[in-house]
TrEMBL record:
Belongs to the glycosyl hydrolase 5 (cellulase A) family. Residues 466-476 have a biased composition (Polar residues). This is Glycoside hydrolase. The keyword Hydrolase applies. GO terms for molecular function: beta-glucosidase activity. The keyword Signal applies.
Length: 486
């Protein structure tokens, strides 16, 4: 997400997949790759030392693999069904505002740490065991079950490059140790019917200069060709490990090649476009003939307007059926001073986005891969949130008027983004930022209990009644219920 520190078709197939889900969860661990197919991908895998104790055993028979691989389909992510999802932020890539508790352990709580790079240095010998413990505990199967119960159908999993390729000096990151928890996440996703976007969120050298790129203030990705090579290798290994292995049941529906590139003096649109073209070829060429699904390649629009998409993604180089564009929206006044202060004006502003998204989506798929209900930041100085929880944050947001606005604001965003390919909220949970947590917002009543049930949308305008570019009505169809109200 944009940094809070700066402004920046058969029943048999379904049965087969269900059995595969069980295999993922039950399989013993085995240090091998399931498939090595093309010399390019094999070389990348070898170079990254991906021998991995977190791989499934691949205990599906060859005959079963042949039968299911014959049914391989293009994922068409963002096309065939509305995406309704959440990001799993704060898990495999640390951001202090999301998980202050990770930065406030007794050994480092007196320090001011800006990012995972600094955290690794401060923790010293405790970095590895503490980070692995975080990977193993922060998300559990209960989270995935709750996501499915909430009517969600997708998770976007932000991942750093060091999950897939070695670091180079002086990079301090913990290499490969995310994979055991990631393996479980894919199994839980398959079990609970959630599609997966694997998002290469942090690239070598940092593509945006934000803490979500690994090191705040560094934007050196485009300065060294080796950074691009390592990025491509990371994508190839991602595909080899989690797309080509049939034990994951084809749960990965999209591969995102970068998150929020920052266009400035360090990175031009043409340079980014050249990487995008190379990444598209790398991802598609890395998919094995035995893969169950060919995932869609997902590209950030780098916060560019939809009017630039024809320039950024010319159809000759980027066939629309092979890609989806990732658009992010945040309505935070600290980041965009032009945003309306008035609630009604802000809702009209949100609703006015819908027709433009719909027009862009008609040419090439667009999914809003990040948004939130937050209008202000939280825990920017994470020390301010020591010991705080969602329960501490809610009293500042749960007045009667704000509860009603938050429900309308949420429904306005959902209605707007559903005019394109759908949405993925940032994030499922946080320590103490209620408006940035889907889980907290749902529990409070700002979001429907089951977002897939249209009868739970309380502010859908009656046919013919919408005016002033409103996508939500002024009054609810019935009184909302909120868990807490001050």
């Amino acid at each position: 997400m944009r940094s809070l520190r700066t402004a920046p078709a058969a029943v048999s197939l379904l049965v087969s997949l269900a059995l595969l889900a069980a295999a993922v969860l039950a399989a013993p661990l085995e240090p091998r790759l399931a498939h090595k197919h093309r010399s390019l991908a094999s070389a990348a895998v070898s170079a990254s030392n991906v021998s991995d104790a977190a791989m499934p055993a691949g205990n599906v028979s060859d005959a079963a693999l042949r039968a299911v691989s014959a049914k391989r389909i293009n994922a068409r992510f963002g096309r065939d069904k509305l995406v309704r999802g959440v990001n799993l932020g704060g898990w495999f890539l640390l951001e202090a505002w999301e998980t202050p508790h990770v930065f406030l352990t007794s050994d480092i709580e007196r320090q001011q740490l800006s990012d995972e790079w600094a955290w690794m240095g401060a923790k010293g010998a405790r970095a590895k065991p503490d980070l692995v413990a975080h990977y193993n505990s922060y998300y559990t199967e209960q989270d995935f079950a709750e996501m499915a119960q909430a009517g969600l159908n997708t998770v976007r999993i932000p991942l750093p490059f060091w999950t897939f390729v070695p670091t180079v000096s002086p990079e301090p990151y913990l290499v490969n140790r995310q994979r055991a928890a990631l393996r479980r996440a894919l199994g839980w996703s398959l079990k609970h019917g959630l599609d997966v976007v694997l998002d290469l969120h942090a690239l070598p050298g940092n593509i945006n200069g934000q803490d979500n790129g690994g090191r705040l203030g560094q934007q050196d990705w485009a300065k060294d060709p080796k950074n691009l090579d390592r990025s491509i290798a990371a994508l190839q290994n991602m595909v080899e490990l989690y797309v080509n292995n049939a034990s994951y049941g084809g749960v990965v529906k999209a591969i995102q090649v970068a998150n929020e590139p920052r266009i400035n003096a360090q990175l031009s649109l043409p340079f980014l476009g050249a990487y995008h073209k190379r990444a598209l070829a790398a991802v598609r060429n890395a998919v094995s003939p035995t893969a169950l699904v060919r995932p869609t390649t997902m590209f950030s629009d780098a916060f560019q307007d939809v009017t630039k998409y024809n320039y950024m993604f010319p159809q000759g180089d980027f066939p629309p059926q092979q890609l989806v564009v990732d658009k992010h929206f945040y309505f935070v006044k600290q980041w965009d001073r032009s945003l309306p202060d008035n609630d009604e004006e802000l809702l009209r502003h949100v609703c006015a986005i819908g027709p433009r998204l719909r027009k862009a989506h008609a040419v090439r798929p667009v999914v809003v891969g990040e948004f939130s209900l937050g209008r202000t930041t939280r825990c920017v100085d994470y020390h301010d949130c020591k010991g705080r929880t969602i329960a501490h944050d809610l009293p500042s947001l749960n007045s009667k008027s704000n509860n009603l606005f938050m429900r309308r604001f949420a429904e306005a965003q959902l209605a707007t983004y559903e005019q394109a390919g759908g949405w993925i909220m940032w994030t499922w949970k946080t320590d103490a930022a209620a408006a940035w947590s889907y889980q907290a917002a749902r529990n409070q009543g700002w979001l429907p209990s089951d977002v897939s049930d249209p009868t739970q949308r309380l502010y859908t305008p009656a046919p013919g009644s919408a005016t002033d570019q409103r996508c939500v009505s002024e009054q609810p169809s019935r009184a909302p219920r909120f868990a807490m109200q001050s």
